[in-house]
Sequence to fold (398 residues):
Amino acid sequence: MRRFFLWIHKWLGLLSTIFLVIAALSGSIIAFTDEIDRWLNPKLFSIDSSKEGAALKSSEWIAKVKERFPQAHINSYHLPQKSSDSILAGVKFGKGAPEPWSDYNQLFIDPRDGEVLGGRNTMRCCSQESIIPYLYRFHYTLGLPDRYGVWLMGGVAILWLFITLSGVWLSTPNLFKEGFWHRFKPSWKIKWGAKRYRWFLDTHRALGMWLLLPLFILALSSVALNLRNELFRPVVGLFSPLTPLPFEALKRYPPDPKFRPKVEFDEALERARVALAGEGIELEPRSIFYLGGFRSYMVLFGPKHPLGYGTPRIVIHAESGEYVSRYIPGRGSVGDRFTHLQFPLHSGQIAGIGGRIFVAILGLVITWACISGLYLWWKKNPFSRISLFNLKFKKEQS
Fold:
């Protein structure tokens, strides 16, 4: 049995190492995506404090944007959280838009007069303006189109679960043999003065044991986020009933370029605020998205990194203005609450800034586990030793 788990741990580890290193290092960075993005692009995220004036309604600043760019269609925006913040708006440009604006999918706008401060394409790497949102998406897609990257990284997450569990098995001695605890202690210790191979082995094993629970949670939540509908929710649904996701019960409409919503952004925001208050929750809206395929608006509430279960969402129909769906984290069945926890756990925001720092550190630990595991395999692999011997022999001969 040990030989089987050793085979699992070794070959699944080798197969997934490069993907785990990419995900781990990018995850350590995007744990602070907003802070780093703002630091890199202060001229986009902040407005000129010397200018005075009250914030315009969304219909007013959208009209100002369309005066400059008639081809621009605003499909979402994030409300300023501070008086010094700009509006970050999602945009799609039609034909005839000037360069380089026609390539942008985000605009930054002064809420007081509708002035466009700049823009960027978050799908392109690697300018100073776009590197962080691109890295955020690269973290779970590797930049691959459609859902291929999402599925690939979801598969890697499944391998990661097996690697983690097989590592625990290999680090745990036979429970029924005498002296279990005496033989189990070395799995938790690092011999700092040991030779290189022993030190790599100790750190690889001990860090995995001490951080077993958070590493397992990170791997499981990766499966949940990348293979939500394909695997995670169906499996959870076998044990607990699940509330349909906000758009699962909504009608999907065929594309219609001529369709214009009867309900504008401002009205949708107000209707969503009233709907959330009716659920007994008093929070201010943070973002609003128009989803044309459903002819509906989705409004997100509360701070960007909320403690606990996450962000409440309300869906308002763009034709009737009716409150048609909701997503209230922390409510529902046990299965619902379990699924709600996955992103807050994965991002660390469940525990605030401390949780995000911890997740960033975990990313470095995972990177070291991959590097040390690769080193241990290389030292044990006879083919690598033969290749190294041949290299040394050729150098001596020359």
